[in-house]
Every structure is written in structure tokens, then in C-alpha cells.
Amino acid sequence: MIPVLDWQRFAGGTDRAGFVGDLGRACRHTGFFLLSGHGVAQALIDGVFAQADAFFALSPEAKAPLDIRRNPHNRGWVATGSESLDETSGQMDRKEAFNIGLDLPADDPRVLAGEPFRGVNVWPGLPGFRDTMLAYYDAVRALGVALHGAFEQELGLEPGFFAPQFSAPMATLRVLHYPPAAGGIGAGAHSDYGSVTLLLTDGVAGLQVKPRGGDWVDVPHVPGAFVVNIGDCLMRWTNDIYISTPHRVLPPQRQRRSIAFFLDPDPDSVIAALPGTGAAKYPPITGADYLRARLDATYRPEPSA
């Protein structure tokens, strides 16, 4: 049900038309596909998992100064039980995470001007953590932007249409840790906010998707391949031609780890129905306004001291 697509068919030029056709069917019918042949080095992936393990092994007291609820730019540590992706469930997610955004210095004009989602990252004092995470961030950001070139072709857009919308995107790298649990929910049923998500896991089962009109099904694990899914922003951009599919993570019987890269457009990008997609179903909205509204509904405020 969830196809495996070899990126080299498009990036290497060996079968662009065939890849685009397969991509379109996946985006229009399930909103999920697996992407192999992506070129992100396995050594870099292994390094990210190792650094994430080192961070999550720190004490809550060591991680507390990095709490995301103290940061207006969606960066930092997400403590277990502080986030609910399924607002209707009444349950908080049994996971912890760490978010990293576009890396900007404190004196960047966009930071000084207080532009939305233009803040500095916060970092733990772990050797190699920052360099490893930023190398991965840059590699997967480039892959995600290149993937939009295939979307352009599939949607009949002018080549390069999306490039200005992702010049300095509100992309978030999130490493996640799901402790073993007998009940509750790892990550509640939800759809992702942005344009696309590129996910790697350690192979421990738990991720499920719910196709339209169907029941929950497991997402297969293909070693080295990204799980890619369409987000709500791209679904809105395409006027519902592409599908953003609900998914969830069941509580694992043993520790589960994953690396998610959420590619959102630039803050001032205008999300409006793309050319050729028919009468607009949604009013235009900036990327920043859309993301802020979604985040505000997700996080529980930090408890008072």
C-alpha cells in the first residue's frame, strides 16, 4: 500500500517521468511513500541517533533549561507528557523530543527584528551534538527542497516554482525517544503541519497510518529509507489534490527512536491554491501564521513555579 520510490530515478535522470507518475499516485491516494536512494550518508544518520541517545540519557534537571515551552521559536526539549498531538483523546503523548530549527546567530537581523520562527537554537553541552545535528539538518533540508522539484513536475508547475518559498524555511529537525510503555499513546493520531516530513526510525514497530475509508495499518520499515508524508500545508497549497493522512505511534514494548525532519516553507510564504488546482477551498495564509496556529493547539503551557 505504501510504495518504495528510488530517488535516483529522478535525481539521476534515469526515469524522471516514471518516478513523477509514481510520486503523484502516492501523494494523491495515500500521502505516504518510502524514499530510498536519497544519498544521505549512513554514517551521518548513525551519528544523529548516537547524539540523540546521549541527550535523552541526561537527567530531567539537565534538560529542563532547554524546555521548549520557554522558547517562542519551537526549539528545545519536549518533556514526556507535555505535548498532545491528538487534542480529542484527552491523553498526553508518552514521548520526549528535541527540536532544532534553522541555525541563526543572535545578531542576525531577522532574530533582532523578532520575526516569527527566527530565533537561535538552544544546545546541550554534549561534544559533537551541534555539529552532527546541523550537518544532518542541512543534508535533509536540501533533499526536501529538491523533492519539491518533483512535485512541480507532477503538478504541472513552472520549474523552480517552489524554490523561493523554501529559501530560509521554518524547517524543524526533531529527534524523538519513546520509552517502553504498557498503555497510553506514544504519539496521538494527527496529521503533520508542514509541507513534507522525512522520517527515519530505528526499526522498532509502532508507526501506523489511517488511509481514507480504511483502518489503521503499520508502516513498513525499509532499512535506510525515509518515510515521507505529505503535510497539511502542502495539502492546502494543492487545494486538497495531495493528501495529508492521519498517523500515530503506538506505545512500544521496547525503546523506540526516530528522527523527523519537518519541512515548512518560509514564514512570509503565502499558502494559496496553486495554479491549475481549481477554485480555492481555503483563504490565503502566511506560512508563519499557519504554523503558529497549529503549534498553539499542541503544547500544554509550562506549569507555574
From TrEMBL:
The keyword rRNA processing does not apply. It comes from the Bacteria. One of its GO terms (biological process) is ethylene biosynthetic process. Its EC number is 1.13.12.19, 1.14.20.7. InterPro entries: DIOX_N, IPNS-like_FE2OG_OXY, IPNS-like_sf, Iron_ascorbate_oxido_reductase, Oxoglu/Fe-dep_dioxygenase_dom. Residues 169-265 form the Fe2OG dioxygenase domain. The keyword Iron applies. Pfam families: 2OG-FeII_Oxy, DIOX_N. It catalyses: 2-oxoglutarate + O2 + 2 H(+) = ethene + 3 CO2 + H2O; L-arginine + 2-oxoglutarate + O2 = guanidine + L-glutamate 5-semialdehyde + succinate + CO2. Pathway: Alkene biosynthesis; ethylene biosynthesis via 2-oxoglutarate. GO terms for molecular function: 2-oxoglutarate oxygenase/decarboxylase (ethylene-forming) activity; dioxygenase activity; metal ion binding. Its cofactor is Fe(2+). Keywords: Dioxygenase, Ethylene biosynthesis, Iron, Metal-binding, Oxidoreductase. PROSITE patterns: FE2OG_OXY. Belongs to the iron/ascorbate-dependent oxidoreductase family. This is 2-oxoglutarate-dependent ethylene/succinate-forming enzyme. It comes from Actibacterium naphthalenivorans.
